[in-house]
Structures are given as C-alpha cells and as structure tokens.
C-alpha cells in the first residue's frame, strides 16, 4: 500500500507547480529533521536527487528546517510583502538590482 501511495504522490508531483514541489520538499526535510535524520544525510540525498546538479549543504538543510517550523504557524513572507519588495527593485518597468 505504501508503494502505491508513494508512486501516486511522485506522479502528481511531476505536474505540480514549483511552489507546490518546493513546499513538499521543505515539509519532508522538516519531518526528517524531527525524526533525527542527520542533516548530512538529507543534504546528500537532495544533492543526489537534484535535477539541476545543485549541491545541498547542512546549512541549507538547517534553513529549510527553520522555514518548516515557521510555516507551521504562518507564512514568513506574505504576498503583499513580496510584491512591495519586487516593486522597490523595479524602476520604470525595469528590474533594478541596486
């Protein structure tokens, strides 16, 4: 039964949005950390699975754990804040990287 559920989840994630996939990844990292899986092991697994050859570090994993913990309560960057920050970086329709 677990194999069927895992297979269905993996199939759905192939068509999911980047926001959905990243949220799933952060949640899984958080759950792994709560289960006392070593951040080194998680980083290695994510590095091996990266479709873009990203290298994940224990610092990355610890950051995802913090995000997971905060996200249990609420989002840490609202849509309004995101729009305002992007608008602040945009001058006359052009992106302005300061």
Proportion of residues in helical segments: 55-70%
Between the first and last Cα atoms, what is the distance in angstroms?
Answer: 53 Å
* Strands side by side in the biggest sheet: 1-2
Shape: globular
Global mean pLDDT: 87
Number of domains: 1
User: Which class of secondary structure composition applies to the elements?
Assistant: mainly alpha
Q: Uncertain runs with pLDDT below 50, 5 residues or more?
A: none
Radius of gyration: 17 Å
Please count the beta strands (DSSP E, at least 2 residues each): 2
Q: Can you summarize the main beta sheet?
A: 2 strands, antiparallel
What count of helical segments does DSSP give? 5
Strand content: under 5%
Taken in chain order, the helices and strands follow as: HHHHHEE
Region (Disordered): 1-24
Features:
98 residues; mainly alpha; two-stranded antiparallel sheet; 5 helices; 2 strands; 4% strand
Describe this structure in words.
The N and C termini lie far apart (53 Å). Strands 1-2 form a two-stranded antiparallel sheet. The protein contains five helices and two strands, in the order αααααββ. It is globular, with a radius of gyration of 17 Å. The chain is 67% helix and 4% strand.
How are the SSEs placed, and which strands pair?
Layout: H1 2-15, H2 18-34, H3 39-49, H4 58-71, H5 79-88, E1 90-91, E2 94-95
Antiparallel strand pairs: 1-2
In short:
This protein is mainly alpha-helical. It is 67% helix and 4% strand. It has one domain (15-95).
